[in-house]
Amino acid sequence: MSAGAAVRPIAVIGGTGPLGMGLALRWARAGETIIIGSRDPQRAQKAAAAIQQKAGPQAQVSGMENAAACAAADILMLTVPFEGQAALLKQLKPAITEGSILIDATVPLAAGVGGRASRTLGVWQGSAAQQAAELVPKDVSVVAAFHNLSADLLNGLEDQGDAPLDCDVIVCSDDPDAAQLTRELAAKIPGVRALDGGKLENARIVEQITALLIGMNIRHKGHAGIRVTGLPPGAYR
Amino acid sequence: MSAGAAVRPIAVIGGTGPLGMGLALRWARAGETIIIGSRDPQRAQKAAAAIQQKAGPQAQVSGMENAAACAAADILMLTVPFEGQAALLKQLKPAITEGSILIDATVPLAAGVGGRASRTLGVWQGSAAQQAAELVPKDVSVVAAFHNLSADLLNGLEDQGDAPLDCDVIVCSDDPDAAQLTRELAAKIPGVRALDGGKLENARIVEQITALLIGMNIRHKGHAGIRVTGLPPGAYR
User: Fold this and answer.
1) What is the mean pLDDT of chain A?
2) How far apart are CA A164 and CA A190, in angstroms?
3) Environment class of B82 (CB within 10 Å of its CB; exposed 0-12, middle 13-18, buried 19+)
4) Alpha-carbon span A183 to A178, nearest angstrom
């Protein structure tokens, strides 16, 4: 970790997938210090180098094995397929720093068990985020967010460069401070507005929306996102 | 029913509630012939007169008891609280015309059984719309739509008149023709775009979104709706 007191790195766990890479890229450009975590440290370093190259020389991006990334940060962004989420969190539990914030973007797509990406699995706890909350140490705050951002758009379409996104991020958590920090991180992505989605239990709805958008993308070859309309300006941040 | 061959009335079943009144008002203004259905025929007629007054003298609005309304139309718009949906459909089954289209906007809010309006009930069939499909005659096509429109905005806020809505309608059905007709009806409401939400089973996601929006309305005193972004222009109609 950097010696600078103000630096609070974000560890993107399972960060070599499209969503992790895209979030890391956008945050690196916004001046955040990013640690890409992966099972394979070399893969993490390679992904970090790729993001560094896209984000420019001022960007702060490194790559580490997942547990080392957890130990080096107290903001953890989890971007793994649902079928790997529980096993990974059980493995990482001892490495998670006390008082960390875990931001979970996991969607329980049926595709993870051989079904369709436009369908979801029922999760006993109600949502993937609530499953995560059960698996992390008790003093870790879990936030559900970033499910509905198009990874393609985050990474920049070849024909459109790095256009701003046209999507809101709905943030659900039982910890208001962790939710606020997450909304601030969301708002650092150009074009993104952050919204208070209420308690963590509401993640079950936000996660489902992703499956609906995937179905629309399949039907229309798009990069669907959502905007919430009709709320007063103070609701968006 | 009118003698005009081109007239295909829409019966708004349970149409004296805020969503039914709002849809009826907007469709009456767009030139559709509307039958308001209610358990109580006098209440239906009173609601029809109120809509007639708001929509203007050219509007075609009448009121009937629910079963008579069903018998007089083959486009049925169901706008009832979830806790009344199954009993009403069982009662109306003999009155539903062969080959009718039933558009269902029911959301299984937990508020219907004493819980919160920002939470939903699990429905055995997957969604309120799929429950409806099980209860109507076999030759009736069920479409799920109009869940996420603000009834307040449809009816016109006092301080804003009848502004266009800022909301998309996601339409789910196993019958492509019924879905298309429903999308055309949605697009007759100013500001509304209609989207193909896929098969009826996807209604389970669209219904949930309403509960999420209700939670946001409670937190922020708004009239939340959703827009789907990132799809090619042909996806909206």
Assistant:
1) 95
2) 5
3) buried
4) 9
Q: What is the mean pLDDT of residues B92-98?
A: 96
Partner A contacted by B95 (CB < 8 A) = no
Q: Which two tokens stand for residue B136?
A: 């109507």
Residue B231 DSSP label: S
HSE-up of B59 (CA within 13 Å, CB side)? 23
Residue with tokens 């140490």: A137
CA atoms B86, B92, B98, B99: torsion sign: negative
- pTM attached to this predicted model: 0.94
- In chain B, which residue's Cα lies nearest the Cα of A119? B202
HEC readout, A123-148: CCCCCHHHHHHHHCCCCCEEEECCCC
Closest approach of A207 to chain B, Cα-based (Å): 10
* ipTM here: 0.92
CA-based nearest residue in chain B for residue A164: B230
A170/B211 CB distance under 8 A = no
Q: Which residues of A touch B183 (CB under 8 A)?
A: none
Chain B contact set for A109 (CB, 8 A): none
Tens of pLDDT along B105-157? 999 999 999 999 999 999 999 999 999 999 999 999 999 999 999 999 999 98
Taking 50 as the threshold, does the pLDDT of residue B229 lie above it?
yes
B179 alpha-carbon distance from chain centroid: 13
Residue A219, helix vs strand vs coil:
helix
H/E run at residue A13: strand A10-13
Residue B23 CA to its chain's centroid (Å): 7
Residue A6 banded pLDDT, cuts 50, 70, 90: low
